[in-house]
Structures are given as structure tokens and as C-alpha cells.
Amino acid sequence: MITATTWLLLLSSAFGHLSRVSKCGSNNRSGVDFLGSYRGKETSPGQYPWVLAALDCRDSLTRYIGGGSLIASSVVLSSVQVLRDTSEADLLVRAGEWNVSTTTEMYSHVDRPVKRIVRHEQFNNQNGDNDVALLFLTLAFPAQPNIRPVCLAEEPAAFGGVGCFYNGWGMEETNSLEYPNVLKKVTIIVKSNVSSISLSDNFILGQATNRNIGCKGESGSPLVCPVPRNPNSFEQIGILICKDGRPSLFTNVAKFLPWINKQVEDIAQNDDYETNSKNILVY
Ligand SMILES: *[C@@H]1O[C@H](CO)[C@@H](O)[C@H](O)[C@H]1NC(C)=O
Ligand SMILES: *[C@@H]1O[C@H](CO)[C@@H](O)[C@H](O)[C@H]1NC(C)=O
Ligand SMILES: *[C@@H]1O[C@H](CO)[C@@H](O)[C@H](O)[C@H]1NC(C)=O
User: Fold this and answer.
1) Are residues 115 and 19 in the same domain?
2) Residues in domain Peptidase S1 (predicted)?
């Protein structure tokens, strides 16, 4: 049964593709923890509940290696570049994080191990083409106010490039050496017409409104835009490819929806994933 507090990713048939979740992409505009709001950087705890951190836990210290987004209770969208040579056992995915230096947020973050990494077979390390990967988690994230999936855009052009942004914990500025401890928000002007600059439509081109902003360390972070007729709801149109330290190139999510759907289908039908469809689909 679908209730207000249950997010369902419905399979279109027995094992179909990911279809739209009624509650995906909604956020809490002022955040969920007013004590911790951080206006200077434009984010509050829980404000962007689909934003995830990929952590390398090979050493005793867990290191932030890049971003990702929650697209279903146990499915993460990220990039090949972020994962590099890591294997499943090397990784943790963190949801619900805001200030990495404290655990005093009202709702705590949650870490999950990775059961299966699926990298796009045609990833091109030279030009960043097909830079998309999925992480299937061993256990679904719980439903809580600071953890919620994002919708995936079927048509990036529909947004007209207005009000789009991504979030990450990467380098603040292109020439700084410091990483922020609080989740940052980077406003991006999306250039809707990439064909005119001879770039494949596997990419989305954008420009940060703040020219000094850096993106080092936060590849894989989700670029979202408000849904035109429902501005309190967000759809992911891109995955950050941090090229030359500047956030200007993104993987075009809409172009990869068929690939994403196929991987989810395959996993759902794969016995050795040892999960049932509920684990992937239901909060
Ligand atoms: C936003 O978060 C606050 C504090 O947790 C909560 O009281 C409020 O109901 C939330 N609003 C929505 C729309 O989720
Ligand atoms: C993040 O946590 C650190 C360590 O507790 C603290 O010094 C800093 O002020 C916090 N940042 C914000 C914006 O609350
Ligand atoms: C996009 O670029 C193509 C080719 O240069 C041009 O024909 C088309 O009119 C442009 N569309 C928009 C919306 O600018």
C-alpha cells in the first residue's frame, strides 16, 4: 500500500524499469534542523536529502572520494571516475550528511556498504564520455527526513536551465587547498544547446554563477533542477564530471536512463545479488 510516508519505486511490470516515485525529489526548503542551518553557504541540514558521499574505507580513515545521488532505497547513481580502482569492499556510501566535522545534526547520517558496483562499459577516460556508474547497496537506507531519493529527468531540455545546482563537499575554490566541512551548493547555468558547440548530447554543459568555484573531489555529484510546474520538487539532469577543477561538464542523465533501467532490471533478476525486489524498490 502506498502511504504518504512510503516511497515506492514501482516496477512497471514484474521486473520493469524504474518509474517515477511520487515522493522523489522533494526537499525541505528550510532544512530539517533549524539549529544547524548555515545560511552563508546556502545549505541547511537535510535540505538536499538525495545527496550522498562515496567514502573510501580502505584505511582506518574513511575518505570522501566523490558524490552520488539516491535514486532508490538501495541504488546510488554516481560516476566511474569517482570509483576509479575501488572494489565493493573498499566503499561505503553515506546519506543524510551535512557537516562532516560533527554528529550533532538532529537526524544522523547513515552509512551503507556496497554489494555491487556497475560501471558503464563504454566509459572513456580521455573525454569523460559515458561517465556513469551504479552502486547497489547491501541494505536499503532507512526513510528519514534527511534521506530521500531524487527523481531522474527524462528530458533535460525542459528546464530551460533555470534554478539548477549541485551539491558536494569538494574544494571550495579552484585554487584553494581546503575542503569545506559543510555541504555546499553551487548554482549552475545550464547551456541548453550543446549541439552548437560540437559536444555529444551525452553531456550537459553548464557554468557556475560563481566563477571561482572549484569542484575537485566532488565528481559524481548530482546536478538537479526544479520541476517547472512544481518548483518544490527536483529532478536530476546531470552527474558532475569535474574537468580542470571547474564544474562545467556533466553527464546527461536522460540519455542514460535506458542504461540505468537495464542495470536495475538485471540486478533485480539476478539471484546471486541475494535480494528481493523490495530491497531495491521500497522504502
Ligand atoms: C521540514 O522539517 C521540519 C523540522 O524537522 C518539520 O517540522 C517539517 O514538517 C518539515 N517539512 C516538510 C515539508 O517535510
Ligand atoms: C561544523 O562542525 C564543526 C566541528 O564541530 C564546527 O566547528 C563548525 O562550526 C560546524 N559548522 C557549521 C556551519 O555548523
Ligand atoms: C541549437 O543549435 C542548433 C544548431 O546550431 C540550431 O539550429 C538551433 O536553433 C539551436 N536551438 C536553440 C534553442 O538555440
Assistant:
1) yes
2) 34-265
Q: What is the CATH number of the domain that holds 194?
A: 2.40.10.10
Greater model confidence, 139 or 275? 139
Q: Is 198 exposed, middle or buried (0-12, 13-18, 19+ CB in 10 A)?
A: exposed
Residues 49 and 187 in one domain: no
Q: Which helix (H) or strand (E) holds 76?
A: strand 75-78
* The pLDDT of residue 80: 98
Among 181, 182, 185, the mutation site with the greatest number of ligand 2 atoms within 8 A of its Cβ is 181
* pLDDT for residue 90 is more than 60: yes
Mean pLDDT, the chain, whole residue set: 82
List, for residues 157-182, the tens digit of each pLDDT value. 656 667 899 999 998 877 777 778 89
Q: Which residue would you say has higher pLDDT here, 16 or 204?
A: 204
| pLDDT at residue 243, as a whole number | 84
Residue 280 lies in a domain: no
- Rounded CA-CA distance 255/203 in Å is 9
- Per the domain annotation, does 38 fall within a domain? no
User: Nearest bound ligand to CA 144?
Assistant: 1
261 and 131, same structural domain?
Answer: yes
Whether residues 234 and 248 fall in one domain: yes
Burial bucket for residue 18 (CB in 10 Å: 0-12, 13-18, 19+): buried
Ligand 2 site: residues with CB under 6 angstroms? Answer: 36, 38, 99, 101-102, 181-182
Binned at pLDDT 50, 70 and 90, residue 89 comes out as very high
